[in-house]
Write a structure and sequence with these properties.
single chain, Uridine Diphospho-n-acetylenolpyruvylglucosamine Reductase, domain 3, 6-stranded mixed beta sheet, 5-stranded antiparallel beta sheet, 14 helices, 52% helix
Length: 361
């Protein structure tokens, strides 16, 4: 979709006064662009909000100086009245900043059972990103998640008992996705927009307390800051960084050993019980998760991981476990993972994970 911006040429050459906020955002983007090849194309994921607009402005400034081409992708989820106008305005702002190409994609967000509109919108957005990367040859997409987003993610993961995978938060680099602003506060991006004379879109859904993340943002974190003192968001972000370092180290250990303890099995893969038993629980559980995820594309929950681990640490002749997407059986000193013959019902999967229906004496 082509967006006309009659005054783009004039706006492109307007240089805002360099302020601390603008400098902070530009510095973060400059550091993120450091490993990008000359002449490569990067796209900014632009919603028109303050975070992504500040990111777009900084990228438009820094990319040419680094010999990089920079464009933008605007995704219209069509979830709100007037969303097409919001998308068109964001695209016009991107053009005015000098980004090229500027693409607008409209998607229909379906309601997936159990996921909710936020998850469905995210899935639709990333599907567009994947298509656009292939279409344009871009090497990456810059996303505008801030330190505040990171803190909210960690806090939500903590409240849900999601474990270290969620508590590690978002990575600065995840495949083709770059997040330069994870060390930048949301207040800084807003100030950067104000200093540059940019008018961000204010999403009304960000004020809707029906969304859990909004309640965390508007109520929980401010209350924690008030009661515990300033710096809670930064502390949560530091926690995510530390957990990510630990998780990366453990993942590296798994990759070093996984080939030595696994072997092909009929319709799946087998893992040595002895090797699993000799490892501490943290590595044992990660190996189980890794095998299931890499071989079958299934992310199993902790209760399922623990059920599989009991086949190693508390073996007394249990029947195979039928978990979501995968069957696990102990045979001849090996744990054999294979695709589930048919998906169990939620109650059956829960029973199997708890060991209430599959054990024999």
């Amino acid at each position: 979709m082509h967006i006309d911006a009659p005054d783009a040429a004039d706006n492109r050459h307007r240089r805002p006064r360099l302020t601390p906020a603008i400098a902070d955002v530009r510095r973060a983007v400059r550091e993120a662009l450091g490993g990008t090849a000359d002449g490569a194309l990067l796209l900014v994921g632009l919603s028109g909000g303050a975070d992504s607009l500040a990111l777009a402005a900084a990228t438009a400034f820094e990319a040419p100086r680094a010999g990089i081409r920079a464009g933008a992708i605007v995704v219209d989820h069509q979830l709100q009245h007037g969303s097409a106008d919001v998308a068109s305005r964001a695209a016009a702002q991107a053009i005015a900043l000098g980004l090229d190409p500027v693409l607008v994609r409209r998607v229909g967000v379906g309601q997936t059972a159990g996921n909710g509109p936020e998850a469905d919108a995210r899935d639709a957005r990333y599907a567009v990103f994947r298509d656009v990367l292939a279409e344009t040859g871009a090497v990456g997409i810059l996303l505008a998640h801030t330190l505040d987003d990171q803190a909210e993610t960690v806090l939500l993961g903590l409240a849900r008992g999601s474990g270290p995978t969620s508590l590690r938060g978002m990575s600065h680099v995840s495949g083709p996705y770059l997040r330069p602003l994870l060390g930048i506060r949301r207040a800084t991006t807003r100030q950067a927009c104000a200093d540059a004379g940019l008018e961000p879109w204010h999403d009304p859904q960000n004020l809707d307390h029906a969304y859990t993340r909004v309640r965390v943002r508007a109520v929980v974190l401010p209350t924690m800051e008030s009661e515990l003192g300033p710096g809670v968001a930064e502390a949560l972000a530091r926690t995510a960084e530390q957990l990510r370092e630990d998780a990366d180290a453990l993942d590296g250990m798994i990759l070093e050993t996984i080939e030595d303890i696994c072997e092909p099995a009929e319709a799946g893969i087998a893992v040595s019980v002895g090797a699993l038993e000799s490892n501490p629980p943290a590595l044992r559980h990660r190996i189980i998760r890794y095998v299931v995820q890499s071989e079958f594309g299934v992310a199993i929950e902790r209760v399922h991981v623990e059920a599989v681990a009991r086949l190693v640490t508390n073996w007394h002749g249990q029947k195979p476990l039928d978990l979501p997407g995968v069957r696990v059986a102990r045979q001849n000193g090996m744990l054999v993972f294979s695709a589930a013959p048919s998906g169990p019902t939620p109650s059956e999967a829960s029973d199997a994970a708890l060991g209430t229906t599959s054990e024999t004496t």
